[in-house]
Every structure is written in C-alpha cells, then in structure tokens.
From TrEMBL:
The protein, known as: Pyruvate dehydrogenase E1 component subunit beta
Cofactor: thiamine diphosphate
Purpose of the protein: The pyruvate dehydrogenase complex catalyzes the overall conversion of pyruvate to acetyl-CoA and CO2.
Domain of life per record: Eukaryota
Biological classification of the source: Eukaryota, Metazoa, Chordata, Craniata, Vertebrata
Length: 421
C-alpha cells in the first residue's frame, strides 16, 4: 500500500478552517484496508479473466490499478474542498438582510433577558418571512411568543410589558396590519413618556415589512414612513442593507423610546457584504445619523430603504455620462439627519429625493421644506425635485405595479432634467 495515492483527511485539509470532519476522518485508513482485501482475492480475478495464476508482481500491479481507480474520486473530492477553502478565505463576507435581522435579535435576546419577541407565527413557524428562524428553539415559548391574529391585542400586551420594564419586539406581518393597532402605537406607546413627565419610558420596537412588495395589491403595499414620522414620541428607522439592519435593530432594541422599524419584504433575501466591524456583537449604528453611500459633486440623491439601491444604480449609469451623484442613505426618518443633507447640498447645489411612498405630505416633501427653511436654500441652483410612488392605490398587475413605484430610469431622467443635460 506504500505505492498508493496519498489520501489526506479533512483535518489535514482544513487546518485553520472550521470544517466539520465527520466520516472523512477515516479515509486515511482506506488504502491499507482496500489493499489487504484485493491482495487476498486478485489471484482469482486474474485467473478468471486471463486463464493463468498470477505471480506476486502481477497481483501488486492489479491491486494498485484497482485501488487508484477507487481512490481517485476521493482525491478529487478533497482537492475541490481545498480549493474552495482557499477561495472562501479571500471572498467578501456576505449576509442577507434576513440573516442580519435574525442575528441582531438573537444577540440582543442573549444579551438582555428582558428582551422578547411576539407576533403572528414568529415562533414555531420561524416567522412569515423566516426572520425569526431558530429563535423559538433556542429561547422557548416564554421569549418567542406566537399570538392570535389580533394586532390591537398583542400590540397592547407588548406596550404593557414595556411599561413594566421588559423590552418587547412586536412584529407586524406587514405594517399595513399596524393600522389595526394604531391606537396602541400612537396613544399608548408614543405619548406615554411625555404624559408621565419623563417617569414612564416605553422601550418597545415595532418591526416588520413596509412598503411595496410583489403582487400583493393595494392593501398590503403602503409605505408608512411618513405616517409614523409625523408623530412626536416615536423614532422611525428605515434600513437599506444588511449592515443597516443589524446595527440599527440592535440600537432600536436598546433604546428607551418606542421605535418603528420599517423593513422591506423585497430586501429580505438580498445579500450584502459586511465588514468585520459590523459582525461584532457590540456593533450598533446610532439612530438619527445618515450615511453617504457614494460621494459626488453634481447632485445629491437622498433616499431610504430599497430605493437607496436604486439611487446607487442610477448614479453608476450617470457617472458614465460625466454626472457625479452623491447618494445619502437616510437610515432614520425621525429624527432626520438634516445636517448631512444640507452639507451635501451646499457642495452639489442640487437635490433630488427618492421614496416609494405617495408624494403628498411624504418624506421627500419634509426634506424639501427643511432645505427651503435652512441655510442650504441659498446654495441651490435649481428647485428640489421629488421622485415618489404614484398617487394611487397600488395596482395588482405587475406592469402597473412597476410603473407605480420609482425605477432607476425615473431617477436618471429626473437628474438629467434638473441638470439640463
């Protein structure tokens, strides 16, 4: 068997990698074992096929040939794993939005025993969108709680628990259903700290998908960013990528104020690269601080949630035509980081807002007003422009649905019109 191909074990291949060895550890014993078996039987094999008794050399050659054929797939299998390990070591680390949210909740549940999650199908079913996958098995019925289909009821329970000193995460299957619990969100959660003269905090997170999805029509597609941002006492967060979701959700859970956390159903399965820093259990993103996703000098694009990606795509196209866009990811709707927007506008002299919600009294309308009232107004070379959802209930047909929310081409068209290019 000393002539046989060397078969490395998974332990030898993975070395510094955390690869599960399992049954492959026994592969190092296979050559000797198979060799003994064939040496005891190959004389009969040779006699059957060639009609003569084999000498020791013929037996050895046959043994080597047969075992090499058998071992070759194993060697290929191990070689492929070795290559994959090396590629993975240099590949960017990617996490989906769904997993980033799941990690954030998991870490906060582990960090603070006062944190718990409740909502429809969040426990045994792992959540309607699998955002809470695995949490029920890990933390049990007392901290991951399935509720009846009664948003008013379980939102009220969550608010009461927050007043009693716990830190609930209240999931709405869609924020359209939060209308069933609007009294609990606005009157019970948002106003209590003020009405108690600062004596009674309500540390609660209302989270779930918000805005347009795919093929769910008018009653499941509304954007509630402007609705909740209108109310004093609430903080309103609207993340875009995995890093946003992870850092902002952890901040929201730790905040002593009620936070409305607006996710996007179409983003759950989208993977994003994440830095080593953002993988730390201590990583948080401050609520109320925007982020410049792309620097530019000709026009400022301000957006939140899914449409930050649209702005970046439009900016990449426009850059090929000599137009450099600065893209600002709001991250937080209330409190809004107006200072970052003003600083950018003073540099680019142009502003375009992008959102999936309706135009009247929307997030973009608020940004326009704040710029008009502030120091950046004197730096504008053109009126502020808004790109928004169309002012109608969401249609069901896909072609109509696509034309009811902003597309990349709409952003490009509006920028060119503003710059007269």
């Amino acid at each position: 068997s000393f002539l046989l191909p060397t078969v490395k074990t998974a332990n030898e291949i993975s070395d510094c990698h955390s690869f599960p060895v399992g049954k492959h550890q026994s592969l190092k014993f296979m050559p000797k074992l198979i060799g003994l078996i064939f040496l005891s039987t190959n004389n009969h094999i040779i006699r059957f096929y060639f009609g003569f008794a084999a000498n020791q050399t013929a037996q050895m050659l046959l043994t080597i040939t047969l075992i090499s054929v058998l071992i070759w797939p194993v060697n290929i299998h191990m070689w492929v794993k070795r290559v994959l390990f090396k590629v993975a070591a240099f590949a960017p680390f990617q996490v989906t939005v769904r997993d980033a949210l799941n990690q954030a909740m998991d870490e906060e549940l582990e960090r603070d025993e006062r944190v718990f999650l409740l909502g429809e199908e969040v426990a045994q079913y792992d959540g309607a969108y699998k955002v809470s996958r695995g949490l029920w098995k890990k933390y049990g019925d007392k901290r991951i709680i399935d509720t009846p289909i009664s948003e008013m009821g379980f939102a009220g329970i969550a608010v009461g628990a927050a007043m009693a000193g716990l830190r609930p995460i209240c999931e709405f299957m869609t924020f359209n259903f939060s209308m069933q619990a609007i009294d609990q969100v606005i009157n019970s959660a948002a106003k209590t700290y003020y009405m108690s003269a600062g004596l009674q905090p309500v540390p609660i997170v209302f989270r779930g998908p918000n805005g347009a999805s795919a093929g769910v029509a008018a009653q499941h597609s509304q954007c509630f960013a402007a609705w909740y941002a209108h109310c004093p006492g609430l903080k309103v967060v609207s993340p875009w990528n995995s890093e946003d979701c992870r850092g902002l959700l952890k901040s929201a859970i730790r905040d002593d104020n009620p936070v409305v956390f607006l996710e996007n159903e179409l983003m759950y399965g989208v993977p994003f690269e994440m830095s080593d820093e953002s993988q730390s259990k201590d990583f948080v993103i401050p609520i109320g601080k925007a982020k410049i996703e792309r620097a530019g000098s000709h026009v400022t694009l301000v957006s939140h949630s899914r449409y930050v990606g649209h702005c970046l795509d439009a900016a990449a196209v426009l850059a090929k035509e000599g137009v450099e866009c600065e893209v600002i990811n709001l991250r937080t709707i209330r409190p809004m980081d107006v200072e970052s927007i003003e600083t950018s506008v003073m540099k680019t002299n142009h502003l375009l807002t992008v959102e999936g919600g309706w135009p009247q009294f929307g997030v973009g309308a608020e940004i326009c007003a704040r710029i008009m009232e502030g120091p950046a107004f004197n730096y504008l070379d053109a009126p502020v422009t808004r790109v928004t959802g169309v002012d109608i209930p969401m249609p069901y047909a896909k072609i109509l649905e696509d034309n009811s929310v902003p597309q990349v081409k709409d952003i490009i068209f509006s920028v060119k019109k503003m710059l007269n290019v």
